[in-house]
Amino acid sequence: MPLPDRMYCAQQINIPPQLPDILKNFTKAAIRTQPKDLLLWSAAYFRALSEGECLPVKDRLEMNVATQKTDTGLTPGLLKILNKQLSPMQTCRKEEVEKKWRGLCLPMDQFEALLSLGGFSSDIDWMGFFALGCSALGGTLLSSLKFACEILTEDEEGGPARIPFNTFVKLYTYLAQLDGDMPQDHIDNFLNSLQAQVNKQNGMIQVSNFYISRK
Q1: β-strand partners of 36
Q2: Whole-number Cα distances in Å, 24 to 29, 50, 58, 153, 155
Q3: 48-91 pLDDT per residue, tens
Q4: What tens digit of pLDDT does each residue of 139-165 get?
Q5: Parallel, antiparallel, or unpaired: how do β-strands 163-164 and 204-205 relate?
């Protein structure tokens, strides 16, 4: 085999000064996120990094939620990533949501099931899709809304998990109407029952206002 025309030594190889920090941050992100397919996730990570987008990285290492009898792939941490990436658009193209979903190595059969359940086609209302994701985690209506509050809140972890009441109303109404068996007056009565507490909390609702933890 002929030798190359030019030979390089270590001193001739130019290593960008940012590379060590880039690799260090990537390694930390991979450990925290624990992707099922490291290569697929890595491609999504560096694509987002190069384009200045929100990275597909969890805030912290997490375990699957207790309601998951099997590993569905979707977790609160992954849904939070999707919300950070897609909520600024409000209405998203299906292709864009699918790209972010695949980048987190989530199962495509679950994605298709959520699309079917929400009746989405080429355009996806993000808040509706997010609500369905919470429903996949929660199992019941109120536990789904508990997850929604914990994902959307700006409070510290372990805090009251407050969100604006108008956001809660949209999520609750969407999921309750999707159920099909809940009368509108029941929906209205439930929301009205929360209003006094919300008024005391400057238009915010927190998990303890509607959800009783069974420990």
Answers
A1: none
A2: 9, 16, 16, 29, 28
A3: 999 999 999 999 998 755 444 445 589 999 999 999 999 999 99
A4: 899 999 999 999 999 999 889 999 999
A5: antiparallel
Q: Amino acid letter at 23?
A: L
pTM of the model: 0.88
Is residue 148 within 8 Å of residue 126, measured between CB atoms? Answer: no
**Nearest alpha-carbon partner for 136 in 113, 152, 158, 153:** 113
3-state secondary structure of 140: coil
- The alpha carbon dihedral of 96, 79, 51, 24 has a sign of negative
Sole residue written with tokens 């369905």: 132
Helix (H, G, I), strand (E, B) or coil at 204: strand
Q: Which is it for the CA torsion 131, 154, 76, 36, positive or negative?
A: positive
